[in-house]
Each structure stands twice: as C-alpha cells, then as structure tokens.
C-alpha cells in the first residue's frame, strides 16, 4: 500500500476503473451500525484538484434515514481481474436547480468516460421531484490494480476546504 499526496496521482487509474466498471456497491449504516448495501451508478469529477461525486437516486426512507443519522458512505467498485476502487465519502442531499442540471449533464456525458447513463430512463428531467441528488465528498480513495494487487491511497488533508459544487 502506498499513500499518495495528490488525487492527481491516482486520478487516471480511478477514472479508468470507474469508467469501465460503472456500477458500485453503496454502503450506509443504520442507527445500530448495521450496514445496508445497494448497487448504484455515481458520477465523479475533478473540482479544483479534488474528487467530487454525485449520485442521482430516489430518496427512499431507509437511505434518507441512514444518511441523516450518519452521512458517511462507501462505494466499492470491482471487476474480474481484481481491479477495484473504494471511495469513503460523506453524503449530503442537494436540491439546487443548477446542481440538478449539472448532474443531469454529467450523467449524460458520462463522468468519468463510461460512468453514467441517460437519467431520462427514470426521471422526466433535471427538475423532476422524484429525482434526488446526493453530493459525495470523498475523504479517502483506494485504487487496487488487479495484476499485482498494487494499492494506492489518497486521503483528503485534515481541515481541507470543501469544494463548491
């Protein structure tokens, strides 16, 4: 395992793996610290050198309760051959019209390339009230290359300013 100082040090590998894998297992925990998983497709971008994620989703009662009680989430990507990515982040519901439009576009263009889909399959448009957006602020990302299990980890600097989204 190697720690890297900058997200840029793992960004290409992160983008490649996430773009090829697409689906991630999202983990939340309830008030008794029991995990719950579901398979979803977040999108990611680089915002001023920092990773920033977005999840277009339904605000189910369980997901909403878990995030309200504990905003820490994990996303795990894995592919045959053992290339994998683990993202530890905090999640926050965001409802600003400009954010909804931006996230709609990130999904449409796929971000990183390959990750995303046409949200119109599930929602009428960016302002559809059933569409809910989770902002994902990673604090730790690990990428593992399957051929030799090389592991590299990026962590946000303590007290680092949150990037506007």
Description:
With 165 residues, the chain is an alpha+beta fold. A hairpin with a 4-residue loop joins strand 8 (132-145) and strand 9 (150-155). Strands 1, 2, 3, 4, 5, 6, 7, 8 and 9 form a 9-stranded mixed β-sheet that branches. It has 3 helices and 9 strands; from the N terminus they run E-H-E-E-E-E-H-E-E-H-E-E.
Helix-strand layout with pairing:
Elements lengths: L1 E3 L3 H14 L2 E6 L5 E6 L2 E5 L2 E8 L3 H9 L2 E7 L5 E11 L2 H13 L22 E14 L4 E6 L10
Parallel strand pairs: 1-9
Antiparallel strand pairs: 2-3, 2-6, 4-5, 5-8, 6-7, 7-8, 8-9
Q: Segments where pLDDT lies below 50 for 5+ residues?
A: none
* Largest sheet entry: 9 strands, mixed
Q: How many DSSP-defined strands?
A: 9
Mean pLDDT: 95
Q: Give the DSSP E fraction (strand runs of 2 or more residues).
A: 35-45%
DSSP summary: helix tally: 3
Give the overall shape, derived from the CA principal axes.
Answer: globular
> What share of the residues lie within helices?
10-25%
**Helix-strand sequence:** EHEEEEHEEHEE
Identify the notable features of this structure and list them briefly:
alpha+beta, 22% helix
């Amino acid at each position: 395992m190697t720690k890297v100082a900058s997200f840029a040090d793992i960004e290409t590998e992160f983008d490649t793996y996430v773009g090829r894998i697409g689906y991630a297992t999202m983990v939340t925990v309830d008030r008794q610290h029991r995990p719950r998983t579901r398979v979803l497709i977040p999108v990611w971008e680089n915002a001023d050198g920092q990773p920033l994620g977005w999840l277009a989703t339904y605000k189910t009662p369980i997901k909403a309760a878990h995030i309200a009680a504990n905003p820490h989430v994990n996303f795990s990507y894995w592919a045959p051959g053992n290339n994998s990515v683990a993202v530890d982040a905090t999640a926050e519901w965001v409802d600003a019209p400009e954010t909804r439009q931006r996230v709609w576009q990130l999904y449409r263009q796929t971000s990183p390339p390959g990750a995303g889909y046409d949200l119109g399959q599930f929602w009428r448009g960016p302002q559809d009230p059933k569409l809910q957006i989770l902002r994902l602020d990673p604090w730790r990302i690990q990428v593992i290359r399957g051929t030799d299990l090389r592991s590299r980890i990026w962590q946000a600097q303590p007290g680092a300013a949150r990037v506007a989204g």
